[in-house]
Amino acid sequence: MSMIRDLRAAVRPSRTSLLPRKNAGAYDTAPPADTNSAVVDCAVYRDGARVTVERDLSPGAAIRQVRRDGGFVWIGLHEPSESEFAGIAADFGLHPLAVEDAVHAHQRPKLERYDDTLFTVFKTIHYVEHDELTATSEVVESGEVMCFTGRDFFITVRHGGQGSLRALRHRLQDDPELLAKGPSAVLHAIADHVVDGYMTVADAMQDDIDEVETQVFSPGRKGTPRGTDAGRIYQLKREVLEFKRAVSPLVRPLQLLSERPMRLVDPDIQNYFRDVADHLARVQEQVVAFDELLNSILQANLAQASVAQNEDMRKITSWAAIVAVPTMVCGVYGMNFDYMPETHWKYGYPVVLGITVALCLGIHRTLKRNGWL
Question: What is the pTM of this model?
Fold first, then answer.
C-alpha cells in the first residue's frame, strides 16, 4: 500500500501554487503537438514505465505490442472526426454508441459499461478572467473529456480548447509505481484532476459572488444605471448553472467507481475514488449554495428597485399635490366672468398670491415631515 499512499500528491498539483483568479481551473491550454492529426500522444506503458517514445506510433501497432508483450496503451485524442476515430474504435473493439458519444460530444457526465470497457464522460470547467463582471461577462468555459478504460488500454478524447492532459501524463510518468496499477490509475488521476479544477473554479466564483453581493447592498452608488445589478446577477446565475450541469451529474458515476467492485478498477485505486467523490460532493454543495445565494441577492436587488420606484412615485405625487394648489387658483381666476369677487380689488392679486404660496409651503412642510419629500 505504500505505493498508493502518495497517490494524491502524484496526480494532484498543489492548489496553493495556483492563483485562484489568474490560473483558475489549472488546465494547460496548449494545443495538440500535431495539429494535422487528432492523436495527441500514443504510448505503451509496462511496469509503470513508458516503453515507447515514438510520436508516430499508431494505435493499432501499440495495442498489438501490448497484447504481445504486456502492459497497457494510453492514447490521447483531441476532437477526432468520425473517420479518424473509426480505425481506433475497430482496433480496440469500442462499442458504436460510445464511439458516437465521443465523436459528437455535448454529453452529460456519466459512467457506462460496454462489455469489457468502461466509458466515462467528464466535463472540464475553466474560469474566464475578466476585469469587471458585466451583464454579458463569460465566467466559465466548459469542455469534455471522454475516457475509455479497458483491461490493456486507456483512451481519452478531449473536446474544447482547454483541459489538456499533457501535464497530468508527465506527472504520472514520474510515478512508475502508480502507473503500474494500470488504466484504472489513469482514470482516477483524470477524475481527481477534473474535480480539483472544479474546486479552484468554485473559489474564483465565490469571489465574484461576494463582489456582487457587496455592491448590491452598498449605499446608493450615483451614476450607476438601474437594472445593471440585476443583469450581472442573472448572468452570474447562468454561469453557475453551467457549472452545476458539470458537477451534479458526475456525483453518481463517482459513487459507483468508489463503492461498486469492478473488474477493470484495481481495488487499491478504488479506495481513492472515495476521496474524489467526497471532494465532488463538497463542490456540489458549494454550487447549490451559490445558486440559492444568487436567488436571494436577485430578490433583494429587485426589492431595492421596487422601493426606489415607490420613493420616486411618492416624490412625484408630493410635487403634483403642491403644484395642484396654484393650478386650481389660476384655473378659478382664469374664468372670464364679469362678476367675480376680488377681481377689481386693489389688493386682490397680492392677497391671492400670498395665500397660494402659503398653502404650497404648508403642504411642502407636511409632506417633508411625513417623509414623502
Answer: 0.75
